[in-house]
Amino acid sequence: MTRRMNRWIPPVLVAAGTALVFAGLAVAADDALKFMPRGGRELLIEVKAKCANCDDLVTLVTTRRSADDWQKYFTGKQSTVTGLSDAEKRKGALATFTEKQIRTLTAYLSINLPLARDQLPRDPARAQWEAVLPVDGRKLTLDRCMGCHSLATTILISGDLNGWGVIMRKSDHVNLGMNAQQLQELLHYLAINMPVPENEIPDEFKKGTGGY
Ligand code: HEC
User: Fold this and answer.
1) Whose CA is nearest to atom 24 of ligand 1?
2) Distances (CA, A) of 138 to 61, 89, 144, 154
3) Going by C-beta distance under 8 Å and a sequence separation of 6 or more, which residues neighbour residue 100?
4) Alpha carbon distances (Å) from 50 to 54, 87, 88, 132
5) Residue 151 Cα, ligand 1 centroid: separation in angstroms?
6) Which residues line ligand 1 (CB under 6 A)?
7) Among residues 151, 140, 143, 155, which one has the least CA distance to residue 208?
8) What tens digit of pLDDT does each residue of 12-66 get?
9) How many CA atoms lie within 13 A of 96 on its CB side?
10) d(C-alpha 172, C-alpha 186), whole Å
């Protein structure tokens, strides 16, 4: 009996311990990754949260607009943020967002929306929108660009859309498992947000298996 208990308990404890370690790592990793510019998914949730009179999220994510039209749409709405300067007020619901964040957001929306009705959560009010919305360039970069070389290889470089397109079409990069829409999202995110200043990148993200 004792023997059987002994054989049973450890795996349970190990599993519980492992779950805790992973939960802890996830939080630590989130903090450590603050240097990565925010992506369109997070920015959409934030602009919606700070908007006094925008449409609901279901309406927003089922609407097709160009990047320019998304900017006009949000500029025509009001921010709930108080104490804004006149210049910030003119940005409407986009007040407090930087120029790069606005471009990242509007590119994300124009590339990834509209969502089909069957992609929407059943209970929009309680939905985890982060899990429903298409992955953004930040997430794609973190998920797909650290397997062969350090993240720094990617985020210390600046380039326009075309330049990033050339890099991503190189043979080393053609099998990264992204569909056409994700590739466009990635290219726009990188073109707008890179480079990250080197002194903001923690050393752990400069090391990579490729030794770059
Ligand atoms: C399957 C392995 C692999 C993955 C995953 C990968 N890369 Fe690379 N990448 C390489 C190799 C190999 C090189 C080095 C080529 C060289 O030395 O010229 C490279 C070089 C680069 C460079 C340096 C510029 C250049 O053209 O040499 C950039 C920028 C880059 N990768 C970006 C990315 C981005 C962005 C992602 C994620 C979307 C990514 N890489 C994911 C293999 C990979």
Assistant:
1) 167
2) 19, 28, 10, 12
3) 37, 192, 193
4) 9, 17, 13, 20
5) 9
6) 144-145, 147-149, 153-154, 157, 167, 170, 172-173, 176, 186
7) 151
8) 444 444 554 555 556 666 788 999 999 999 999 999 999 999 999 999 999 999 9
9) 15
10) 16
Pair of tokens at residue 116: 């089909």
For residue 141, what are its two tokens? 């970069």
Q: Are 180 and 124 in contact (CB under 8 A)?
A: no
User: Could you tell me the two tokens for 190?
Assistant: 């990188």
CB 137 within 8 A of CB 39: yes
Chain mean pLDDT for the chain: 88
The candidate with the shortest Cα–Cα distance to 37, out of 92, 94, 103, is 103
- List the structure tokens of 115: 């969502």
